[in-house]
Amino acid sequence: MRPQTNRLPATTGKGLAGAHIDRTRPIRFTINGRVTPGFQGDTVLSALLAAGVDTIGTHAGQPLGLRAGAAPAIAYAAKASLPEHALPMERTPARDGAEYRIVAEGPTAGLFARLFQPGRTLGLALDTPNSLVRPWRSIRGEKAEPTDLVVVGGGVAGMAAALAGAHAGLKVKLIEASPHLGGHSGLFGTQDGESTPEENIAALTAEIAVNSTITVLTHAEVFAIGEGVVRVHQLDISGERVESRVVDLPARHIVLATGAFERLPVLPGNRLPGIAGAQEAFELAYRYGIWPGQSWLLATSANPAYRLATLLAESNINLDRILDGRDQASSRYIEFCKAYGFRQFPGTIPLAVMPGAGGRLSVELPHGEPVAVDRLVLCGGWQPDLTLWHLAGGESRWNMRRERLEPLGEVPGLVLAGSAAGHFTRRGCVTSGIHAVDRLLGRPGQGVDDPVIDAFYETPDRQMYVGDSEDAPAPTYLDADNTLMLRPAPPPRRRWTQIFRGSHTGPVRVLSEAPQPLSIGAICAGVSIGLIPPDSAGVVAQERVALVPLTAVVPPQQTTAEYSIGAPPYLADRFGHDAVVATLRHDPSRQLGSGALIFEGEDTLDPRRAVGVVLRTRNGKTEALVAASVRDAVVRDLGQAVPAEVET
User: According to the model, what pLDDT value does residue 547 have?
Assistant: First the structure.
């Protein structure tokens, strides 16, 4: 059994000793036969990370780091073959004496990997498509009792919205994916006149606890949404064993307080073990007292990451340096870091990361020798999480000044709140939660109070971009999620011997050729590195993020592995049980991008009304998955309507 080598001492100050664990109650469990220690309050993921297991396996020839956004599913050993019993390790409380198995597509790593990284890796070989599958996403939801208001997201905006709904006489269900309410406001600190994040969260939580009209569902992830209904993967943690189920929850009103996520800077090696985002690193330390290694490097283009450095300043962990992609940035936290004596390098970004000696990371810089550290914290700025917004039929557009996608227009019966709506101060998030309920009920309300500090004192965040070349030393990922989307490869240098070899069938070279739905993070990365025109980002998001709406379920007698009509498993039943793979006849001068949605009429942009999707271009022909009854269609490709005829 591995010791908890990555657990901070109980005496660690600044609230980083693990607020959600009980160190007086040790536990241990097994996962794939590996005995893992932990404490009461740990999730399966946090216990693994505390024990030094930081690698999922290998992908594209390199180790892939274990983190919340891309952790493999698990199940109790006796039920590992049943998808309805699969559990997310980042949301599953670790139970003493439990025996878990990893649920993943593809084989485990070979003997070589197990010998040379003993205990550090889960040993998965991840080059199989959909290797980090989420089995519950192919299960039909049980019909739940309807409610008046569903609030998705248990941060300060979501809690404020839930209370506002309850005060208005509504029956409310507040849904939060993580084990605890509170969201991500802890890293952002306070502004003048505000209470601390911890005090604010405690007050809101206490008020919710005594309100009988609010039902709180933690450990519950909303992964699909339709008109007046959300689909939830919910964990029942009340018994000795954690159980799961998928529920369709109808509601008259929906508030999406889904927050914002930290973008992954696009550079080679950006998902190696030992790399984390600033928000992720803070939450692991604050909630579970986890910090790997004794040295770290911070690379950021956003101010809140500097606060993480100040919180760790009095620990025994050495901060080698802080790199900031902005020139001469200003912030109170930057000044605090100067006072602590941290070395800061403005206008400097890492070029690449490679595995170093002794399990460390080797960070390549623009000048000088590579820096060896135990941990690299990458902060690429924040992007509102608009995934569910797009699944619900919402639109967005690219804000050039803020370098992010922002919501556009309205969706009936649904309102965004908090960071998802573009508010990043705590006061703005709280008041936007209240304002969201006012809008749903048609009340004027008092609007959103979102104070913004002058840019002279607080330099705005920006996105960090790092280019790579054809001979990049390590894989470059576009997002930190479980799709494992790699940066498209540059066009190969063609030799005369290749002239007669036909079309290229190697790695994806254009983002639209990717065979899976695109995440919001991947689309933002595509804009940053020039693969998606900024003016088209909103259209691409609407078409590619919304590929799997609420209706996409696999029939009970069928598994995703059995879906074999030439389309990816995630599209099973998307366009009806009788959908067919057909050829589209259209203007031959136009090559349609994979993922472009197909409609029966030109007058619609609602992705929920799509009747098909372009799969690929093969041998000069466009193949698509379409409903069997469709003959004349219109393909929405990068915002343009392209007439097409379906040949079956």
Answer: 60
Residues 6+ apart with CB under 8 A from 28: 1, 35, 36, 37, 38, 96, 97
Does residue 560 share a domain with residue 507?
Answer: yes
| Strand pairing report for 87-88 and 375-379 | unpaired
**Nearest-CA neighbor of 156 among 387, 407, 410, 434?**
434
pTM of structure: 0.85
On whether both 45 and 149 belong to a single domain, the answer is no
Q: Are the beta carbons of 60 and 485 closer than 8 angstroms?
A: no
**Does residue 33 lie within any of the structural domains?**
yes
Tell me what percent of the chain is helix, strand and coil, each rounded to the nearest 5.
25, 30, 50
Cβ atoms of 645 and 630 closer than 8 Å? no
Say which range, 68-72, 76-80, 509-513, has the weakest mean pLDDT: 509-513
Q: How far is CA 388 from CA 24, 61, 147, 420, 441, in A?
A: 40, 33, 19, 10, 21
Q: Is 105 contained in some domain?
A: yes
Q: Residue 296: how many CB atoms within 10 A of its CB?
A: 24
CATH number of 605's domain: 2.40.30.110
Mean pLDDT over residues 14-25, rounded?
93
pLDDT at residue 467 above 70?
no
- The domain boundary, picked from 394, 411, 440, lies at 440
Assigned domain for 324 exists: no
Cβ-proximal residues to 123 (8 Å cutoff; 6+ apart), any chain: 32, 57, 108, 109, 113, 114
Per-residue pLDDT at 41 exceeds 90: yes
Q: Would you say how long the chain is, in residues?
A: 648
| Number of domains making up the chain | 3
Residue 44: inside a domain, yes or no?
yes
- Residue 605 pLDDT level (bands cut at 50, 70, 90): low
Domain residues for the domain of 94 are 1-139
Summarised one tens digit per residue, pLDDT across range 382-395 is 999 999 999 999 99
